[in-house]
Amino acid sequence: MKRRLYLIGFMGTGKTTVGQALAAELGVDLYDTDAEIVQAQGSPIPELFAERGEAYFRSLEHVMLTELAQREPAVITTGGGVVLSEANRELMKQSGDVVHLTASLDEIVRRVGQDENRPLLPSDTGLRARVEELLEARKGLYDFANWTVDTTDRSIQSITAEIIQNLSSSSR
Ligand SMILES: Nc1ncnc2c1ncn2[C@@H]1O[C@H](COP(=O)(O)OP(=O)(O)O)[C@@H](O)[C@H]1O
Ligand SMILES: O=C(O)C1=C[C@@H](OP(=O)(O)O)[C@@H](O)[C@H](O)C1
Ligand SMILES: [Mg+2]
């Protein structure tokens, strides 16, 4: 693997989970923008959103991505909203390979429904409608990726193997 591999995609598509398996398999360092922000700020994501607002979180996210884009070789997993910034999209495109993870609406709702850690999503009955709304608002923003991998009904191992296969055929 050369340089960096970024994982992008909507919340719940498995970026953080797949990234861990991928970095272990490739034997490179793993950085998750959310985890790095939480560590640097000493506050969980919901607290950052509640106390400082989304715009403040987006600025922390941009600074963190810029810093992580200096490290190599590495797998870098991102938050679902990182693509809202054109500068972030450009930075990832220029500094590594980018994989877009997807999943069906049903699967996303199932996966994120078990987690209280995403401040943009309600934990009540409004969850599905909110996911649909955000998917629509972000339509097209993930399309700059080199590859798209559907994770619906698939094991982490099979998703990881597909990504490694993509990487090795592109470097031939
Ligand atoms: N391929 C998969 N099949 C089943 N569950 C998955 C899969 N990938 C991730 N998950 C689960 O979905 C939830 C969200 O995964 P996560 O890696 O945090 O996604 P993201 O970082 O894209 O938001 C977690 O509970 C995780 O264990
Ligand atoms: O889509 C988003 O705007 C967000 C996604 C989250 O990361 P995951 O995609 O890893 O859940 C996290 O960065 C924050 O809650 C905002
Ligand atoms: Mg994540």
Short description:
ATP binds at residues 12-17, 118, 154. This protein is α/β, with parallel strands linked by helices.
Q: If you had to describe this structure to a student in words, what would you say it looks like?
A:
With 172 residues, the chain is of the alpha/beta class. The chain has one domain: 3-Layer(aba) Sandwich (Rossmann fold). Helix content is 51%, strand content 14%. It has eight helices and five strands; from the N terminus they run βαβαααβαβααβα. A five-stranded parallel sheet has the order 2-3-1-4-5, sandwiched between helices. Helix 1 packs across helix 8 (156-170), helix 2 packs across helix 4 and helix 6 crosses helix 7. The chain is globular. The mean pLDDT is 96. The structure holds adenosine-5'-diphosphate (ADP), shikimate-3-phosphate (S3P) and magnesium ion. Residues 9, 11-17, 111, 114, 151, 154, 156, 159 line the site of adenosine-5'-diphosphate. It is found in: Cytoplasm. Keywords: Amino-acid biosynthesis, Aromatic amino acid biosynthesis, ATP-binding, Cytoplasm, Kinase, Magnesium, Metal-binding, Nucleotide-binding, Transferase. Substrate binds at residues 34, 58, 80, 138. This is Shikimate kinase.
| Rg result | 15 Å
Q: How are strands sequenced across the largest beta sheet?
A: 2-3-1-4-5
The ligands found in this model are: adenosine-5'-diphosphate, shikimate-3-phosphate, magnesium ion
CATH architecture: 3-Layer(aba) Sandwich
The CATH topology label is Rossmann fold
How far the N terminus sits from the C terminus, by CA atoms, comes to 11 Å
Shape: globular
Q: What structural class do helix, strand and pairing data support?
A: alpha/beta
How many strand segments? 5
Number of domains: 1
Order of helices and strands: EHEHHHEHEHHEH
The helix tally amounts to 8
Largest sheet composition: 5 strands, parallel
Approximately how much beta-strand content do the residues carry? 5-15%
Low-confidence stretches: none
Catalytic activity: shikimate + ATP = 3-phosphoshikimate + ADP + H(+)
Main location: cytoplasm
GO molecular function, one term: magnesium ion binding
Enzyme class: transferase
